[in-house]
Amino acid sequence: MKFLSIIVLGLLASTAFAAPMISEVVYVEAPTDTDKDGKLDLIYVSISRPASDKKLSSIYSISPYALGGTDGPMHEVDMDILPQDEKLAKGFSSYKGFMNLMRKSLKDYKTTPEFNAPKYAQVRAHSVGTGNSTGCPTVGDMSETLAAKSVIDWLNGRARAFGENGKEVKADWANGKVGITGTSYDGTLPIMVATTGVEGLKAIVPIAAISSWYDYYRANGLVVNPGGYIGEDADVLGLYIARRGACKKELQIITDTMGRENGDFTPFWQDRDYVKYVKNIKAATFIIHGQSDWNVKQKHAISLWENLEGVAPRRMFLHRGGHGSTYSHGVPAKLQAWFDHFLEDEENGIETGPQVEVELPDGTLVTQNQWPHEDSEVHKFYFSKTGMLTTTVGTISKMKIIDSGKTQKMDSLINKPTDINSARLAFLSSPLESAQLLSGTPKVNLSFAVLNRKAANLSVAVVEYDKNGKGKIITRGWADAQNYRDFSIGELLVPAQNYEISFNLEPKEYRFAKGSRVGVVIASTDYDFTLRPKSGTEIEFVLDENSSIELGLHP
Q1: Which residues are annotated as catalytic?
Q2: Distance separating alpha carbons of residues 539 and 484, to the nearest angstrom
Q3: Is residue 447 domain-shared with residue 513, that is, in the same domain?
Q4: Residue 234's domain spans which residues?
């Protein structure tokens, strides 16, 4: 997945060793045969634990990146027309230096935080089909989940493991209590394992983690890029993490079934959606995510948080940074306390007080009991032909844009919102009389017709315009116009026929300054995230009661 801009996890300082350390390597037998060789997959596990008469709790991490990765091509994103317009064949582009960028930043990435060493055993594994483990990577499905789960089963005496000499090894030093943590893909695996409800898993800390692979590579029926990784998809990631030259047949299956001819929520993505299994989680879950993370977008954290309500203990810290964790506001100590409480039964107060903390861009920390903020109220603003956001529906009118996605980025489309720009529509609020906290998931409602094509990108950004008119994108979102009825399956549009669509933008908590204006910019192609068809797609928007945006705000 990604290493760029990941903050090194080394969050929790180790204390001086109180006892000699014991190191060993075992291969845990998984219940899977992902390479179809007739042998059960073996998961490579290295263990470092203090010599102790007391049985130990374990901090477990599992990574597909332990031994680096394999170069591969990216998918083409520049094209004449969108593939779902004419059902064009998909294909790869040439290698663009992407993997070298990943490898260059490997030195800055640490998969395992060092928790209080005398207290815990550190258990590190290579994900199935990667590193020194056998099998083939499956990029997020149940086989990968069960393989990762098998290590916890071994720590609880329910699975077998073998030493490098081939003899069976038992975890007779373990008390069976396990916590899992990691960042990015390494943070996704804890969620995957936790959704099985496996006994012995007491706590997880998913950092910048994926809760649904669909929301990583797709959005509301549309093929999208993870921020900064143009043309990546599940098969590109699978090739990167697989052992060099291995699993070609298995990786081809991923290419053939994931589909880039559209962004529909197909069985491939349904099999990699963990949100629907959150009800099975028993482990206390502490979510860490960056509000400026456009790689693993914040929706992943919010979806997990919302679905954990009433299911398991939960806590969430949303920091102002990007893809990774943070040292600010005592986060390392809080993570330590989370594991100490749920693995060692220490009464340290980590479950008392507000369980949601949000760091705003200026470093201010907002503590709240809920997400969205409990004091926020949803306000609906309509798009008017005067270019204003209004609280009442104005005169019904029509406005047209012509897509210029290959030549203008969204960062330029938001400039000079009161000027005419055929590639976008811009709507502004009146200057704010007081600061307003945006909190929640904005929802946009559009009434539109694609005049000259059977498909179109739809991209929307919420923007703050300061007193000088300079704009800054606060959040954004995308949808496939063909999925106006159902994000699971799209349908060819009839040119010039009117349709209505509603979709969510990425969640956000952000404080708009007094005197600034809230802006909404509507465009077609978002150069940094969507596929880029040739310019010229014409979209007409009807400004009526079905054209609005819903924002959660409070002073």
Answers
A1: 184, 293, 323
A2: 14
A3: yes
A4: 21-368
